[in-house]
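Section 5: illustrative case.
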């Protein structure tokens, strides 16, 4: 009930009618999304890349993937480069962050979002989304680590549950793609979601 009221309020506050599509529920597909950023602190983080892929039924629609590089406003630090491998020359021709997020909004529409620790990615995206639309993302969010926790808790209530990504990949037996690439990470989260769905935790 509260979720519906919030969505109704958000729809009234939407300042750009082009994005009313965010409120058109799509029950056929979900979108797995991941962002690479300059910091793990939401307040400081700037986007460096965004990856997303659509899922329909039990399939990842890799032919309908979304990937953009984003040009940050500040110089990249060496510790950032060592994590995600994106160098200044890689992002120098990237899109302006607002343009990149506009493209993402067109891509996701009203589909639910899937991700691994999705709350962080959505929080960073919302810094830009609010400026573009006047609201935060209204899309339903599906947290893979939360679904995995429920799956393991049902098997062994009270046991310690390791929520590290490597553990989820190994336990659910999905292919391990190279990490810290936004599109690869989005695909990985999508595979984990489908593996949990097949186990009754979708």
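Designed sequence:
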């Amino acid at each position: 009930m509260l979720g519906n009221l919030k969505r109704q309020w958000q729809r009234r506050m939407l300042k750009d009618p082009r994005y009313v599509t965010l409120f058109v529920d799509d029950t056929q597909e979900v979108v797995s999304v991941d962002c690479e950023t300059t910091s793990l602190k939401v307040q400081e983080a700037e986007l460096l890349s965004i990856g997303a892929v659509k899922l329909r039924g039990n399939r990842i629609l890799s032919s309908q993937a979304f990937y953009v590089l984003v040009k940050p406003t500040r110089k990249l630090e060496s510790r950032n480069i060592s994590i995600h491998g994106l160098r200044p020359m890689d992002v120098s021709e990237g899109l302006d962050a607002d343009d990149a997020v506009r493209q993402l909004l067109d891509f996701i529409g009203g589909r639910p979002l899937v991700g691994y620790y999705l709350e962080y990615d959505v929080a960073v995206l919302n810094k830009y989304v609010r400026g573009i639309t006047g609201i935060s993302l209204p899309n339903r969010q599906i947290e893979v680590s939360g679904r995995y926790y429920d799956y393991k808790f049902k098997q062994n209530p009270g046991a310690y549950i390791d929520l590290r990504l490597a553990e989820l990949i190994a336990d659910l037996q999905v292919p391990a793609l190279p990490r810290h690439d936004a599109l690869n990470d989005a695909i990985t989260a999508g595979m984990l979601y489908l593996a949990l769905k097949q186990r009754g935790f979708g």
